[in-house]
Design a protein that fits this description.
heterodimer; A: mainly beta; 7-stranded mixed sheet; 4-stranded antiparallel sheet; about 0% helix; B: about 110 residues; mainly beta
């Protein structure tokens, strides 16, 4: 998991502002994921990407957008439509999207804590 | 869809005691069950996982058991140490629209007291 980096560590958003969280991996993993973690709760899936130029909505995609133009990068934009963005955001990757089994272990980045001013 | 329930939400033990965390899942098609440890402000790290064709797996002081019939799996930590204090998350992987995704439990905060 040391091959996944996220930046910045802390991010402050003003009302009405879009902000972008960076996630980069050098593990040559095909699949990447974004999760949101709120205090006292588990991880909830925002978006995932199984391969370059493809991504799918997770369970809580509203107010978020992503792109996957490069294998190693999967940035997440928190738009002004996300009314409660304060949370800890975790990016993860796995060798493959495990449709047939194997390669399903997900490795997490260090996270970005987003706060609203 | 898949749902994962995790108990207890908090667990306090004395150093050297054992700790057990239990999770139940709803989708009988689930076939992979990882456990993650997350220290305060840090990333979740995989500590052990088990697949549905195995009933038990051990790695030094930690073990995971799976009961597919009852649809529950448990994490066992023996000889607990203060550095085991963290939040532990279970997860289950179930097919969803052709893509296998992880569903996480809400977490268990384990405190090991010296």
């Amino acid at each position: 998991d040391g091959g996944i980096t996220q930046s910045p560590k802390y991010l402050f958003r003003k009302e009405g502002q879009n902000v972008t969280l960076s996630c980069e991996q050098n593990l040559n993993h095909d699949a990447m994921y974004w999760y949101r973690q709120d205090p006292g709760q588990g991880l909830r899936l925002i978006y995932y990407s199984q391969i370059v130029n493809d991504f799918q909505k997770g369970d809580i995609a509203e107010g978020y957008s992503v792109s996957r133009e490069k294998k190693e990068s999967f940035p997440l934009t928190v738009t002004s439509a996300q009314k409660n963005p304060t949370a800890f955001y975790l990016c993860a990757s796995s060798i493959s999207a495990p449709l047939a089994g194997g390669g399903e272990t997900q490795y997490f980045g260090p996270g970005t804590r987003l706060l609203v001013l | 869809g898949e749902n994962v329930e995790q108990h207890p939400s908090t667990l306090s033990v004395q150093e050297g005691d054992s700790a057990v965390i239990k999770c139940t899942y709803s989708d009988s098609a689930s076939n992979y069950f990882p456990w993650y440890k997350q220290e305060l402000g840090k990333r979740p790290q995989l500590i052990i996982d088990i697949r549905s064709n195995v009933g038990e797996k051990k790695d030094q002081r930690i073990a995971v058991t799976l009961n597919k019939t009852a649809k529950h799996f448990s994490l066992h930590i023996t000889e607990t140490q203060p550095e085991d204090s963290a939040v532990y998350f279970c997860a289950a992987r179930a097919p969803s629209g052709g893509y296998n995704k992880l569903i996480f439990g809400a977490g268990t905060r384990l405190a090991v007291h010296p």
